[in-house]
Design a protein that fits this description.
disordered N terminus, globular, alpha/beta
Length: 274
């Protein structure tokens, strides 16, 4: 995922620039901002997931359904989405869901002006309006694929310099506007980011208003866990609200088909389909 399936060399350069240090967060992230009775029951998955830039064909997904992975992340949209998605259709979602796959929707919207990810950047002057409009687009894309209200949408936020105060503030403004609009349309809010920057900014924010209730953290330590290496406050993102991207660029063969994927430990919401 990081930098949207960029080369392995560039990905590790990005990781190095972002810095390997992690800082513990404090406080509990907001989960939803609407009455619980207005929400469909959350659908969760606990186990191993994978993400790859372009959704594999239904044939490949069927072959990969060996029990090693139980969920797959898919890039549903966004101006900075890195790959075309010829396979990702409503019929594909219906087909792979019927065979038992759980799906994790990702949206690659505007990226930080002080980061290397994406060509469309977040501007302080338009962060709120763009966040809202991109959330509307994300919901429209998810719904068109058959991912129903109550599903999560994970906003992909790549590495950036969190010490740049104006840039960091613009990112948080954008994320809050995106998440607030998701919840207004009864979709759950999640974020993918690095423990050294974008995820840290969310976990460590003093003001938790309208921030995501689910955090998918990139920490490439090859540890299949969402608990023992959790780098933030122990009371944060509990109750099936975490994902961990723990290995990248893993070339794997299952059922006779080979794909290069990232591995994820998952204990969080997945799309409601069917």
């Amino acid at each position: 995922m990081s930098s949207h399936r960029q080369s392995k060399k560039r990905r590790y350069i990005t990781w190095g620039v972002a810095g390997a240090a992690v800082v513990a967060g404090a406080g509990i992230a907001a989960q939803t901002s609407m009455a619980a009775t207005t929400w469909p029951a959350q659908k969760t998955f606990t186990g191993r997931a994978f993400d790859t830039c372009a959704a594999p064909s239904a044939t490949v997904m069927k072959a990969w359904n060996t029990g090693f992975y139980g969920a797959a992340a898919v890039y549903i949209g966004g101006k900075n989405r890195g790959c075309a998605q010829p396979n990702l259709t409503a019929s594909w979602v219906k087909s792979v869901s019927a065979t038992g796959w759980k799906l994790i929707p990702l949206y690659v919207g505007a990226q930080p002006s002080c980061g290397s990810g994406g060509s469309v950047k977040i501007s302080a002057s338009t962060a709120a309006s763009v966040g809202k409009s991109e959330a509307d687009d994300a919901v429209s894309k998810a719904a068109a694929l058959g991912m129903k209200a109550g599903s999560p949408i994970y906003l992909d936020m790549e590495a950036y310099d969190t010490t740049n105060t104006s840039c960091n503030n613009a990112v948080l403004t954008y994320v809050r506007a995106f998440d607030k609009e998701l919840r207004a349309k009864t979709y759950r809010a999640g974020l993918y980011g690095f423990t050294s920057s974008s995820a840290k900014a969310i976990a460590n924010a003093t003001d938790k208003t309208d921030l995501p209730g689910n955090l998918w953290y990139a920490l490439w330590d090859k540890q299949n866990t969402t608990t023992t290496d959790w780098p933030f406050g122990s009371t944060q993102f509990t109750g099936h609200s975490r994902g961990h991207q723990y290995m990248v660029n893993s070339k794997e063969t299952h059922g006779g088909y080979t794909i290069t994927v990232d591995r994820d430990a998952w204990d969080g919401p997945v799309a409601i389909t069917g």
